[in-house]
Every structure is written in C-alpha cells, then in structure tokens.
C-alpha cells in the first residue's frame, strides 16, 4: 500500500536525520490523517510550501493521484523528497529553494490553483509565503490548530494586502481546523519579502 510504504520511508529516514517529530507509526498516523483532511479543497496544479517530510503533499498526491510541486529549502529534506517521488512513482516536482525566493520566479508565481503549507509560523506568515504561488481565483489551504482572535484578525488584514480573503474556516477534529484563503487579485510584487522577514515580522501581527 503506497501510504504505508511512504510512512516506512519517512520513519527510516527519521533515524538518520531530523525529518519530523513523528518517531513511531502511531505518531505518523496522526500526521497522515491530518494531511488527508485537505483533500476536499485541493485542485491541480497544486503546490506545497515548506514540505519537510512531505506532509501534507505526499499523502495527498498518493491518495488523490494529483500532480504536486513541493518547495523545501533544507537540502537534506529536498533530497529525501526527490527520492520519495522517484521510489513511489509520483507525479511531483521538488524545488530546493526558500519560498521567499521561489515565490518571485515567473515559472512558479501565481501558477497554482491550490496550495498548502504546514508549520511555517503564524497564519499571516504562512499566507505571505503561500499566496504568491496561487493564481487569482485559486485558494490557499491553511492547516492550523487554535487560532486566537488576534491572529485571525491579522490574517484577514494580511490576506487583503496579499490579494486574498478568508473564505471559510472549518473545524476538522478537536482544535484542528482549515482556513481557506481565496485569491481575488494578483499579489503585489513586493511579497513575499526577503528571506526571514515573513517569520520575524509577520504582516499585521
């Protein structure tokens, strides 16, 4: 089963270098279930930013058979993702580059119908790193835990600056939720800002 094989490869690689916090099959199962929760919102072409161990992009690509571009700045993780793509026979492309740089490349900027990003920082940070890749009319799918009102307000203001609006918020399980940002117009070319700034100085937060 491809998902089980993917899980085994992740856990094997995790023994060699720090790939994910999941140390056991049980831990990884939670991440897989969380990853599959984005499936109803994904459309091709699809991009995942800061992919790390490939979550949620690789499980989504396996389950739905969709094409995905994964963007990962850490060289070891990018190499692992490229190996995964080859061994699992996925329709995927790995871009070994920071999102702040890749987001300004003409072949990647506003080329995707949907995108995801996990564990990259606050919601405004994720929006700034992800929305430049999304085409007008497309959607950024943010996976979050508890969202304080101050963070939600900052996200709404940041999304407006980035050419998008918070369309829906769906509670998945317990405190887990999905925030869907609909791209309404092109993102101004000054975004994303230079490497590190989206994390250090989140927009409107």
Task: Give me a quick take on this structure.
This protein has 205 residues and is an alpha/beta fold.
List the helices and strands and how they pair.
Layout: H1 2-14, H2 25-36, E1 46-49, H3 57-64, E2 68-71, H4 75-88, E3 92-95, H5 99-102, E4 112-117, H6 123-130, E5 134-144, H7 149-162, E6 164-173, E7 176-183, H8 197-200
Parallel strand pairs: 1-2, 1-4, 2-3, 4-5
Antiparallel strand pairs: 5-7, 6-7
What can you see in these coordinates?
This protein has a single domain, classed as Rossmann fold, CATH 3.40.50.150. 38% of the residues lie in helices and 23% in strands. The chain is built from eight helices and seven strands, in the order ααβαβαβαβαβαββα. The longest helix has 14 residues, at 75-88.
């Amino acid at each position: 089963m491809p998902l089980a094989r993917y899980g085994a490869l992740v856990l094997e690689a995790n023994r060699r270098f720090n790939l994910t916090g999941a140390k056991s099959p049980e831990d990884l199962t939670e991440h897989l279930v969380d990853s599959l929760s984005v499936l109803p919102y994904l459309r091709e072409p699809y991009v995942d930013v800061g992919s790390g161990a490939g979550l949620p992009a690789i499980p989504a690509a396996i389950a739905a058979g969709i094409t995905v571009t994964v963007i990962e700045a850490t060289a070891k993780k990018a190499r692992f993702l490229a190996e995964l793509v080859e061994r699992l026979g996925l329709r995927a492309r790995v871009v070994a580059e920071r999102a702040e740089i890749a987001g300004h490349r003409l072949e990647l900027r506003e080329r995707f119908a949907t995108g995801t990003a996990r564990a990259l920082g606050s919601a405004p940070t994720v929006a700034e790193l992800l929305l430049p890749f999304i085409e007008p009319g497309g959607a950024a799918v943010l996976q979050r835990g508890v969202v304080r009102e101050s963070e939600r307000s900052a996200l709404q203001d940041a999304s407006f600056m980035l050419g998008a609006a918070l369309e829906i918020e769906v509670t998945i399980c317990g405190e887990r939720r999905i925030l869907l940002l609909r791209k309404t117009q092109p993102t101004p070319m000054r975004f994303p800002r230079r490497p590190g700034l989206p994390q250090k100085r989140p927009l409107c937060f």
